[in-house]
Fold these 2 entries.
Entry 1:
Amino acid sequence: MDSEEEAMLRAIGLRSIDDLFADIPASVRTDGIDIPRGLSEQEVVRHVTSLLRKNRSAETMPTFLGAGLYDHFVPASVRAIASRAEFYTAYTPYQAELSQGILQTLWEYQSFVCELTGMDAANTSMYDGSTALGEAALMAHRITGKKEIVIPRALHWEKRKVLESYTVGPGLDVVEVPFDPEAGTMDLAALKKAVGDDTAAVYVENPNFFGRFQEDLADIRSIAPSVLIVGANPLALAVTTAPGDLGADIVIGEGQPLGNAVNYGGPLVGIFSCREEHVRKMPGRVIGLTRDAEDRRAFCMTLQTREQHIRRERAMSNICTNETLMAVSSAAYVGVLGANGLRRLALENIRRAKQLAERIDPLENFEAPLFPGGHFNEFVVRCEVPYARVHKALLAAGVHGGLPLTSRFPELGEAALFATTEVHTEADYERLLEAMERVR
Amino acid sequence: MTFRQARYDEPLLCEKTRPASDSDTDFFDVPVSLRRKRLDLPQVSEHEVVRHYTRLSQMNFGIDTGFYPLGSCTMKFNPKFNEELARLPEMARVHPDQDPSTVQGILQILFELQGILAKISGMDAVTLQPAAGAQGEFTGLLLARAYHLDRGDAGRDEVILPDTAHGTNFASAGMLGHKIREIPSEDGRVNLKALEAAVSGKTLALMLTNPNTLGIFEEEAVEIARIVHDAGALLYYDGANFNAILGKTSPGKMGFDITHFNTHKTFTTPHGGGGPGAGPVGVKAFLEPFLPVPIITFDERAYGLDWDRPKSIGKVRAWLGNSALLLRAYAYILSQGSDGLEHVSERAVLNANYIRHRIEKHLPVPFSGLRKHEFVASGKPLKAKGVRTVDIAKRLMDYGFHPPTVYFPHLVEEALMIEPTETESKETLDAFSDALIRITGEDPELLKSAPHNAAVSRVDEVRAAREPILSWRMLQRAKGTEPRKA
């Protein structure tokens, strides 16, 4: 014990540190924690770095995975902004006057999300795209009182499983609509049959899980009953029509592509936005614009009566800690790239998906893209040999191929979802194509 | 009083925008029905963007700026080495769908972290999937539900909560459609008679924070566990206050079946102004079959992922969890070790009791006895002067301190919930205590008009909620009604 601690103990009128824990009964006391003693900073950094070196990153292994998370180039300015200690070492901005910086930044984030999605209001984030879907389903149930959520079969199984957990409370039924086997997009005739009197919402993605654009969103709007939830890639929205302009009520998505790393799956950032008429049923933290006592513009958290600390068990969600710092990165990223930069980058990702598919297709044993038409970032590759064999061969060649689909989507045959972004070099493509060519 | 927060009349980035050149885009193969004509986003130089957000950051208060005794939030120093580790490409640029053979490093870290958290909590198995504490609660209740259903016990839909419980406990239970039985406290602790009256064959679980949100240790933890278990229900430990008990006791030892951790509290992963966090959940062995999929496996040679878990509750978020935060928690725990972690709790508890001792003559602290890592004072004595706790909180800003948590827990009138954490020096604790004491004697008008030294003066939160303006679009639509700048 140092002298400072001794002085404080004396002031309180205690003799030892043990006296501070006299209220913990002996029957529940433990004798320390059975782990090694502490290490110096240098030792910890060396140890953790050596463990991380066992990972293969996109830095050294060209990786063609997407399926919701995409390794994009993030300008250093974005990291510099998110690394401002005033931002990242703050807690939730409960005290508005001391927190104007993050409040305005988050309000700008909300604004950017709304412009991209065509919605009026956005929250400051959900945990990720999958929980945004779970929360959107619950919100649709709150709006309509109905119990069926219609979803596309072409959906990442991770999202599907999360949706099922989130809907346990009100006991919602998840109804699956197949994809058109020719187009790879939602089968509208099947959708018409799936929608009924108890449908709370229809959920559709654009681009969808197979990277395909859902061209007929307007038709889906007319088939869907009250609530239409659209899942979007925010980068794709720079060049595709805002779902709000096509009649969506709630627009969600995984926000990681806007300025955040893939981080082995977390932290990510769930985009959540809706029409003004539904805002009081929206989950999560929201920043509003107001004024201070001297009539200056100011920002604060608002509509808090929807949230857990006020509404308790009748709250719109239990979410408290969210992914604010990722939203800060997204705001900075939108700022740094600007409207034109985002549009150019979105088109670049469309072009690259098209060109990579065109280079894979002529290879023996491979067909790409499996579905015709425009793709964003990714496309399905079908192969004549078991994909597991391709997967292993690529790894052996120092390349990570796409996401194997065969076991989850047996109707596609031997298939995988290949993604590409602006980070890939010509050398990366050649390495991939050469390795694929050698698979027999 | 030397604190002055930066104050810029910083416009919105949207207001700095020069009209975006609406380029004649070649849409490649974007379907005609989906081609976007207009994108109303900013178009400014990179330098302007960096300056804009740098200025905004200067109008923000973090623990690197000053003392941040926000009760229940454990705002301790965030080691800088963690930020460098998390930015390494072997962490940041690793995709969660990668083949397990290419992610052996992070899988080892996560696997080892599970083992360490089990030891710290006295639990047998841990999932790292939940993204935050509240999601840990949601996961824990799903586990309890699955366990009861697996035994064929379908009638349990009530969750018992003491009146000191965090709001998230209520909301997590509410999200799952459970009924809440709220039990009153007695002398700042769980009232055992009320608990006995509340438990029944309908009880799913009791959720308890210990030490509770008053900073008081529930000494009857063992008896509480007996009552709940005798009724066939489970005990959930809300780990928000873990910082008080590291190495001294554990939820497992106290008889709890399920616990969550808040890595952004106890294990100092930075809270990022509202998130991210991570909310791992630990369970006793009998609940292990129900944990979310996939689980991380280790066969003495390699780490892998097992999805074949027939009793699993499924998933609560995509992939394995907030891995880059879990990495930081792991590194922090290694740096502290057994000795450091125990000292964390000792110093955190000492610091809280010291401030309490300094200020309680001026601001009463209801309920007698020791406190753990935090305590709740009451601003009630100042009410006669027309001063509310909110005014005390705002005035603290002028002295360069972030205010404590206010108006929680509800059973203390005009509550100020103070949690200093272990990384603060006596000098800081004294300066804060001095400021608080001085404020109680200041001119009420000075308090009611505070803050005076923050970026803005008192913010009108009522107006924000009455006429919500939540985006640039809504602002443009509401043009004319936005207050003009002074």
Note: The longest strand of chain A covers residues 199-206.
Entry 2:
Amino acid sequence: MLKVRNLEAGYGKLRVLKRISMHVDPGEIVTIIGANGAGKTTLLHTVTGLVKVNSGEIFFNDKNVSTLSPEKIVFSGCSLVPEGRQVFSTMTVQENLFLGGYVQKKKGRSNLDSEIKRVYELFPVLKERENQLAGTLSGGEQQMLAMGRALMAKPSLIMMDEPSTGLAPLIVKSIFQVIIRLREEGNTVLLVEQNAKAALSIADRGYVLETGKIILQGAAEDLLQNRDVQRAYLGREMEE
Amino acid sequence: MYWEEDKECMAREDLEQLQFERLQSTIYRVATHVPFYRERFKEINLDPDGFRSLSELSSLPFTVKDDLRQNYPYGLFAVPLRDVVRIHSSSGTTGMATVVGYTRNDIKNWSNLVARILTAAGLTKEDVIQIAFGYGLFTGGFGLHYGAERLGASVIPISSGNTKRQIQIMQDFKTTALVCTPSYALMIADTMLDMGINISGLSLKFGLFGAEPWSEAMRTEINNKLNIRATDNYGLSEVMGPGVAGECLECNGLHINEDHFLVEVIHPETLEPVQPGEVGELVVTTLTKEAFPVIRYRTRDLTRLITEPCACGRTNYRMTRILGRTDDMLIIKGVNVFPTQIENVLFEIEGTEPHYRIVVERENHQDKATVLVEVVESIFFDEMKKQRQLVDRIKKRLASELGVSVNVKLVEEKTLERFEGKGQRVIDKREL
């Protein structure tokens, strides 16, 4: 579904991504783990077209999207749930969701009832808060809204940037349960997380990003067993 | 039947993407963790980050058996020893032996890949598998054992030898699949014939044979004598052990587990890739090994790649059965033997000359190796007892060095033909 080859990108003179190659197959949860500043968000932003590609290729459903604009990329079925939710706080929950469905409208859909219904089913609390301003929601609710907003575009690939940041452990758990459910319903998820243990425990595969390079990749359960990952990202002490 | 259909029947393009990702991280890891590779890369000014496609693999240096020997025992490990859960080794003493290690993940992958090969050969969890490979430092026994358990089959870890007991257990335990060397399978068949055992009374259905070269004629003979379907499988300890490649029931080439091993076929002298489909030396790069990754390991095994699709549906390329070796290594009863090992032993024993000949024959499907050794004249004037003692000493030393017993014959000085340069010291009379 998503194929990235030798991707290089950065900001000005700063090279952030150094020849990244990775892929996501349909129906998978793939996670990218790594420390702060490793390039995780840059990778997502480059795939979504927010950061320009310096060299390398991005294929989405066999189509080269390396040079497409962000809106065209969303249009082709790839949605981002940005870090820190970025909901429109002065708009209601429902308005936020409708904005997410803008692409569907553009594709000629007369109404978005079925999408809204699906989102409310996944996140019943959003239904309860339907007419509340997004800015008044709790952090966890805002995260759900951001996910719901991305789902409104009916993406074939949904990318999530640090959905667990700043949330209470119990909320994180329920967010991750929704991600599992999304996969069960046939969605494909690319999940960027600092919470390596939680991400690897729900993912099928993972990539470890370190200073802009992929240093390890493999089945999520193998990465959980890998001593380097354990030492660096899972906080397990070295047994000397 | 597939074990991992999504991996075994991958679209070529997806496979190449996966191989490329894995190769990039393998190169990164060896350059970071293995000084040997780091220096090699530095010598040729190779930037480990500069890798852009699978075709650039040919810019990397080869690794040969000697590199492994020179880094004895742990020099090429890419993880600290505390991450290693298993160590295997080839036969031979210090300086000749090679050592390989496995992390927990390596063992898991290994088991999985062997389970693939067992499945391709027709086996399921319903089978009772008798593993008549030697257990121990040799990778054959444990490799097949873990794969068979992973498959969920019932495993009989009988190890090699004691043919009558093998047959007894095969009958009593209702063995459905036999795993050993092809020559040992024939030995078991012939012994059963001698004992007057009715083959049709056995539960045996499948046989997976490897660790030594064999032929289509031998397959037919095994199939007929044991009334089974015999398949070939391939592996080498330097790369992992069994599980690198194995035949499906089409019996027309061994499917290579290409998502874990990147293979090339090169001309053994020019070291250039051969034309697709031509015979050459197999070169393997591991893509997932954690403890002991190898880059472009020259196997010295001759084969040919088959890229046409297989009727079984697997998309992985196949290789033909091993057609020969590019060095002087001999495989005697499944054990790898180098003439230099024999030379080293003879050098250490007083009274022998450094002139010898190795004659390998096959008697009743069993390998028989005889080492002819020139001895100083005085020994022939000595009493018989002393001659016998010398033979025994050489035999013992050779057995402990080689890991397989060989016969020893003393011959008079200057009776063996002399060669200029590297002599033809091996006379292999075996017909497969």
Note: DSSP finds twelve helices and 21 strands in chain B.
